[in-house]
Amino acid sequence: MAALAKAPAHAGAWSTLRPALAPWLLEALATLDLPRMTPVQAASIPALLSHRDVVVEAVTGSGKTLAYLVPLLQLLAATPPRRGRLAALVVCPTRELAQQVHAVLQRLLDARPQSTALAAAAHAHEEEEKPLYPDTVPDEEKEAQPVLARSGALLVVGGKHRPEEDYRAFRDEGATIVVGTPGRVEELLKRKGVDARELQMLVLDEADRLLDLGFSASLQTILSLLPRQRRTGLFSATMSDALASLATMGLRNPARITVSVRAKQSDGATGERRAPASLQNLFAVSRAENRLALLLRILRRETMDAEGAGARKCIVYFATCAQVNYFYKALASLPHMHQLRLFSLHGKQTPSRRNATFESFVSCLPVGAAAAAAASDVGRSAGGGSKASRQQHAPEAAAVLLCTDVAARGLDLPDVDLVVQYDAPTDPKVFSHRAGRTARAGRSGRAVVLLNRGREEEFVDFMLVRKVPLAPYPYLLSTSPKALPEPGAEPAEDEQALLLASQLRAQNRRDRESHESSVRAFVSFLRAYSKHEAAYIFRLRDLDLGATARAFGLLRMPSMPEVAEARSRALGLIKGKGKAKDDEEKTMDSQRERELWGFEQEAVDLRTFAYLDPTREAQRLESLTAADEKARVAAEARAAAQAAGAAPEGKRKRMRGTAVAEEAWSQQKARKEMKEVRRDKRARKREFLKKEREEAAKPNEEQAKESEEDGEEDWTREEQEEKRNAKRLRKEKMERNSKPAEEVIEVAEPGFFDGL
């Protein structure tokens, strides 16, 4: 394992800390050759030990890892945890950073003497818990009695073990400290057998990166599963606005600690910087077609100066994973690159490949420190270097890591003397993190960013506003690939750059896989370039696509909207919505296209364009035969249908989706995105109309309810009136029936005519 880097010692000895550290911890720090503290350690450790939460912002390489590991171990030494109880948790954004933190923590834990105060405290706790009559205690209760454990560290990251294995290791090993990535930590804490009630300290390393990578939901879940009475530390080199919400949710009255670098200016004044004082931030300007050649010259000059010494390890950052894959294989095939050991690292590699590459790059011997007998051991790693470079590089060859931003945060890569940013970062905040992989812990280092001539040169002023000054790096000229480059003015036509482009195109002609890889790299680069946060500097319409394509060694331009728009602008055919006339664009010959935007398409017969890999070539031929057979059957079916009197195919309705299937993949992707947007709009419209209907129905419902209540009252009155009338009739009938019968006597009175 590489030695721990020494941080700049400007803040006193460890023994001056108050409260004082445990004696074994002081001895461990002295054994690791770390006799003094850095400013960030001197400010953070006392705050954490005095029950304060902290939000720490400090430049890269300032010793933030020990700023939280030392108080973490001191707290556990003062209050020993019980076995099976989680006492401390460290969350990191990437598995590489988690592995590095775990390695440093394990070295500190291994430095503890066997007989420590922790063991004595454990014995005292056992005596305190011992029952008065031990024979009367059942066996089940004996097993359940808590026992203090020596703090052990458990690493939980993806790619090595399954979540079930992580839980089993936590349970069986009795680990009290967990270091891991958010997803695995969340899965572990959700287990019923994980008790976090006695957690003493939570650390979020590279906290802003945790939020940038979309771990906000996992972090909230983790915080909800932890006790509120704990110490919490947020550590990062850059703090974003999103951390404000996280700090208010998980921290209690935090102390904000900012450690910056003040540089003395020529007039005697001091100015604040966001980079270590020992770091030289530089920028190199060239035309787009010369960028790759300039990169190789910088690597040669920085790794092999005139005295035979130079950078031992270099890191080259690209914007996308596809670029790393392509340039790693393309550069490894160049004859004059065998003197450099190449490594590739990006987020789409398998976990085993990433781990092997990372460990191989970290453990490889620097320039001047390798022995001839160890040459074979240096190159024997699953992830490091191509076969040709492993066979032909010298024992003292410098190591070059081609990577994406997966290796830009928090990693302490020893002996890195040079960082080259082939593509400026999409997020300007990442610039300092990339450059901070060198000049760590007081060492000197150089970081160079490559810019295209023109609008991209404004990036220098942009970074100056962000307190990161950049100094110019000269353009390098080379008379031959093997000659040591020398500073000079960029010529109108760089012959060595043209030779390099022709070599890449020749490699792409020989192997279809290399050709496809170059196209994927170019397309992914354009996609990333169009998403720059500093879009007014990195504008896609100002990028010379023809020159960029030559630097990539493309044989043909890919079919994508960005390329079509650039071709239309070159032809001066932009109309209305930025589309060109199809007939004029299609009839443009290759010579005119080369004159207009500097790129000549090569004729590529995809039927005969073969892979060098025999397995892939056999698969291609098999699929080609199947496609030919399918086309033959379809042609016979069409001929039979026409002979039977069916309508010609041109007049028949095409199957649904045929036109979409024949479009370029970029157009299909844009169509799908528009479909999703329209679907969301329709859903929002339906929801809006539903709410309107509900609002409109409320008055009618109230009116109907009032009418219903009035009708119910009228019906009640009528019913009561009918009951009263019926009751009155019954009463009258009863009265009539109760009276005695009256005797009726009829008297006949004499009439007027009776006597006549």
Automatic annotation (TrEMBL):
One of its GO terms (molecular function) is ATP binding. Residues 707-716 have a biased composition (Acidic residues). Its main location: nucleus. It holds the Pfam family DEAD. The Q motif is unique to and characteristic of the DEAD box family of RNA helicases and controls ATP binding and hydrolysis. Belongs to the DEAD box helicase family. DDX55/SPB4 subfamily. This is ATP-dependent RNA helicase. The lineage of its organism: Eukaryota, Fungi, Dikarya, Basidiomycota, Ustilaginomycotina.
